[in-house]
Description:
It is a single chain. By secondary structure, this protein is mostly helical. It contains 21 helices and four strands. It has helices at about 5-15, 20-35, 40-50, 60-70, 85-100, 105-125, 135-150, 155-165, 175-180, 185-205, 220-225, 255-270, 285-290, 300, 305-315, 325-330, 330-335, 345-350, 385-400, 405-415, 425-430, and strands at about 275-280, 340, 355-360, 365-370. The chain has a four-stranded mixed β-sheet with strand order 2-1-3-4. Strand 3 (about 355-360) and strand 4 form a beta hairpin. The protein starts with a helix and ends with a helix.
Amino acid sequence: MSLTQELVRLARGKAITPTDLEAAAYFVLDTLACAVGARGSAPARMLDAVAPLGSTDPGRRAFFVGGLSHILEMDDLHRDSVTHPGCVVVPAAWAIAEDRNLKGQRFLESILSGYEAVCRVGMAVGKAHYRVWHNTSTCGPFGSAMAAADLMMLSEKQTIWSLGNAGTQSSGLWEFLEEGAMSKHLHTARASESGVLAALLAAENFTGPAHILEGKKGFFAGLCSDFEADKIVANPDGPWQLTRTSIKPWPCCRHTHPAIDAAIQLHRELDGEPITHVTVGAYRAALEVCNRPDPQDPYSAKFSLQHCVAIALADGQVMQSSFEGSSRERISDLRNKVSVDVSPVIDAAYPQSWGTEVVVKTAGGRKLAALRQDAKGDPENPVTSAELASKARGLIMGAGVSEQLADTFILSVLDLVNDRPVRDIALLETIRGR
């Protein structure tokens, strides 16, 4: 039996409770609110020019919403796999469900299975993969294909073909970050679209490789030097991976969030006292992606531990405006006082725990420290349903959508648990603001 077949059987064999469906609805809301919130951005206009908002092709629609939902860097994050599953799985499932006028419960069930696939593949790729490859982009197509195949009620064989052809489309390199390019949005757009295309082809009996993961010329062999294949099907009776996924409270790379959480605490303890030096101890992957002492644009600042810690220490909060030119200039002196390094203890706990320690020395001779093993939004330190709904409302209204339309959209998404038709959430109408 291939690993892909084992994965399909695992995802389709797990029990689903009403609590699981409710959790899925909140993650759908979080992802789609991120998409709506980005509607006025420059990358969104470019995506719309290539994959028009009104396209009737489900693959193109998944492409558009998949790219849109990752622009603000506010979408969810699964720590063990280092993936953002929502921005890949939810747009794919939405595109198929809306196209076929499906109802909420079946849609939410497909979200659970899609998250399961992308997260399990992501947990198996090994740490070295992430140094060159963007896990969300490479592992994401497995999740979007799984969700689409479930919604289309494909047979086991057809679903294996779907995942096989999703895997052969896996791609997404980190090089874009060196230049502050927009490729990350393309990563999620293509990962979502690839799964839809693979499932649509499988429905026509277009075959795909069953051993795409473990084959001699497969995914692991080509992209993963230290893969752990057993993680694909480990702990099959454990909780759904969706429930092990984190919600992001701040609009920047998740690797910066433990440090932001700690810095906000220290902001309160400092009470305005001048800072002479800041030390950030993190895990190696955080430094490989976010060691950027002098970010020159908003996107680079979102991937800068130095900037994120400095702005959190200075302001006690982090918002979209925290990364604009005026904010970068305002805290440049403090940012230059921030040094980052690998903490062996924190690094050893990664990726199961994304921790950071921030130590501040003050002009008055004080030494303040704050340690985070888990950041706000992690399953161990979760946001409440009210906080998540408030985040969604803020994202949607921040994009110029009326309060009435925002509230209608939120209630429609959460009502999917009552088997409301997916078309009722009116995603495209909300993106258009009407």
